[in-house]
Amino acid sequence: MTRSLLVIGGARSGKSRYAQTWVEGVDGALAFIATAAPGDAEMRDRIARHRADRGARWTAFEAPIDLPATIRTAEAGAAAILVDCVTLWLSNLMLREHDLEAAAAALMDAIDACRVPIALVSNEVGSGIVPMSELGRRFRDEAGLLNQRLAQMVDEVVLVAAGLPLTLK
Predict the structure, then answer these.
(1) Is the bond leading into 85 cis (omega within 30 degrees of zero)?
(2) EC annotation (predicted)?
(3) 65 CB-near residues (< 8 Å, 6+ apart)
(4) Is 98 marked active-site?
(5) Alpha helices for the chain (secondary structure H)
(6) Which one has a higher pLDDT value, 11 or 28?
(7) CA distance 169 to 155
(8) In this predicted model, what pLDDT tens digit does every residue of 40-96 receive, in sequence order?
(9) What does the alpha-carbon distance between residue 23 and residue 27 come to, in Å, rounded to a whole number?
(10) Rounded distance, CA 23 to CA 147, Å?
(11) Per the residue annotation, which of 3, 29, 37, 50 is the catalytic one?
């Protein structure tokens, strides 16, 4: 089995379902690392739906900011890990004005050191229109750069569009 997987795609492309199915192909306990913060009712409902989609094999972790440390914690009791999603984590860091280079380097180190299969979900944000705001353009650029770094280091990269996977690497 591939040790590390990056699944990218647009909103509602099927990328999370693809990554979850990949992780569920591993026998044993599974870890789900959520980067979303339940800030409003719609997000709380979304999180609840995602939890309902996973069975008893899954243990959920929340990592809106310290994703690298959570990966290290989760791998201690899991046969495989699913991180959903990298772009939400990035937006959390940006809104709190964290050092993005240091955070990305720490994430790469955590993935590289991870001893169990790990799947990361990320949004492909470069195929749309140019955002109107400076923050939006910066986010698009940072997400694209982070996706490139992740794609270089992981074993496999899959783009999902309209529910259909296309293996890029």
Answers:
(1) yes
(2) 2.7.1.156, 2.7.7.62
(3) 89, 92, 93, 96, 98
(4) no
(5) 15-24, 41-52, 67-75, 86-95, 100-113, 134-153
(6) 28
(7) 7
(8) 888 778 777 777 778 889 999 999 999 999 999 999 999 999 999 999 999 999 999
(9) 9
(10) 20
(11) 50
| All domains of the chain in start order, with CATH | 4-167 (3.40.50.300)
CA angle 110, 103, 107 (to 5 degrees): 20
User: What's the pLDDT tens digit per position in 111-154?
Assistant: 999 999 999 999 999 887 888 899 999 999 999 999 999 999 99
CA distance linking residue 96 with residue 72, whole number of Å: 23
DSSP class of 10? -
Q: How far apart are CA 36 and CA 89, in angstroms?
A: 7
Residue type for position 154: V
Location of structure tokens 């959903």: 84
Estimate the crossing angle of helix 86-95 against helix 100-113, to 10 degrees: 150
Token readout for 26 is: 């591993």
Mean pLDDT of 96-116: 97
Coil, helix or strand at residue 72: helix
Assess contact for 45 and 161: CB atoms under 8 A. Answer: no
